[in-house]
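Example 3.2
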Amino acid sequence: MRGWTIPLGRWMGVELRVHAFFPILALVCLALSAADGRGVGRGLGLFLVLVAAVLVREAARLIVAAWLGLRLRAVLLLPIGGLFAYADPESQEGVGQGSAQFFLAFTGPLANLATTLVLAATFTGAGGDIRLFDQPLITAAYLLRSMVWMQVGLALLHLVPAYPLDMGRLLRGSFARKHGLAPTGRAATGVGQVLALLAMIGGMALHNYWLIIAGFFIMIGAQIEDQGVFFQSVVDTVRMREVMLTDFATLSPSDTLADALVRCVHSLQEDFPVVRGPQLVGIVSRQRIVDALRSDGNGYVQSVMSRAFQVARPEDTLGTTIRRLTAGHGLALIPVAESGRVVGIVSVQNLMSSMSLLAEQRRIEREESSD
């Protein structure tokens, strides 16, 4: 999710990010406003109308996700809606179940349609002449009318069976239970991209800018989801023995901090397992050693090491270890032990490089097998 995205911080424990093309869409709205002979204010207003429609659907989906007990790690906002990343396999499996998937698929469209009825009733009841059914339905010249039809458009868009739209996601889930997530995900992504291309071609033929924009972002969303499915297939099949560092340094609890600092100088590691004989007794970071020397002078490693750590096994999957590192426990290193002996380590730093290399290796293998 981090490629081409803008972070907006964490909200109730969920990381919120906006795709870089979202702000660019503001420029498109300004251009459409200028084409209608309107000013900058109207263009920004049209963009905010779109933002409001997306926020309505995503707020409703977040509420339903919380009601279903699904733990979210991050949400990526696109102009066609949001993409969820789940914090644990239980939540991911929960979405794969029929009822949870059904509720999430229909929550967004229902929220937009309900908002449409409220807005239309409010504007009509207020006695204003908003010309609800005049053409064009969405234009910078009539923002109140656009507000109503933008909600309708986003709801109808997600009833199209194109992945990663809601109906496309629902269809992918039903086929995935029979044929597996990875092959079904690739097929659904391909179908979604074809439909997106047809939408863009149709938009150009009909001179419908919104259809072109929708098709473009459906294609972007499908590519992001395809990368996510491929990445998930990597982390769920790779074992720790394939990515753990086997050339690493350890410290003893009886080492002095000064001696430990010398070891740090000659090592690229940021964190060190602390072992007494073959037994792992703690973990200490380079920064913790430096801070202790500055504040308290020389001492022993056992006085500053952390005794709160988790241990992985060589046969554990990469996905399991990533979830341990990102579970919010402040872990920067996980030792890999076999029969009580540390045989490797996994740190955030080496995971980043290992995952990118593994993903590239798997991608090359997939392309070679398809040729």
